[in-house]
Design goal:
With 138 residues, the chain is α+β, with helices and mostly antiparallel strands. It is built from three helices and six strands, in the order αββαββββα. It has a single domain, classed as Cyclic Phosphodiesterase, Chain: A (Alpha-Beta Complex). Helix content is 24%, strand content 42%. The strands form two sheets. The chain has a four-stranded antiparallel sheet with strand order 3-2-1-4, with no helix packed on it. The chain has a two-stranded antiparallel ribbon with strand order 5-6. Helix 1 packs across helix 2.
Length: 138
């Protein structure tokens, strides 16, 4: 039943894809160990709109309020050590252009996600960059 509700929510998503630049690795302590995450230099301006659209669709379909999220990509849920500070990396241009339905869980004390096959929704084409945004990439 929950899967059916989430599938309904996925079909209601009408958000735009977005671009962001990952330029650092940060670590934090999670409930299951040290997590390492790729982070962007700044949260994309349209990230909030994407979260609002997905959250509204899920809340409508499931009748449950959604939690918060941040613009980051987890590298490891079981990192070998906590990084004492942020580590700068060569910037990676990243495009978030789809929403994937996954099931989270633990096995052998490692957290992971399993994709639910065929449960992907493409986002609308990203908004065109302004001249100022393009210049900031140089």
């Amino acid at each position: 039943m929950v899967i059916d509700q989430l599938l309904r929510a996925g079909s209601m998503i009408s958000a735009r894809a977005l671009r962001f630049r990952i330029d650092r690795i940060e670590s934090r302590f999670g409930s299951d160990g040290v997590h390492w995450e790729f982070k962007p230099e700044r949260t994309p301006s349209d990230f909030a709109a994407l979260l609002q659209n997905v959250g509204s669709a899920v809340s409508f379909a499931t009748r449950r309020k959604q939690g918060g999220h941040s613009a980051q990509l987890t590298i490891s849920y079981c990192a070998p050590e906590h990084l004492p500070r942020m580590v700068s990396i060569r910037p990676i241009e990243w495009v978030l252009d789809e929403v994937l339905l996954v099931r989270g869980g633990s096995s052998s004390s490692r957290y992971h996600y399993d994709a639910i096959e065929g449960r992907t929704w493409n986002l609308l084409a990203p908004q065109e960059e302004t001249v100022n945004e393009k210049m900031s990439l140089l």
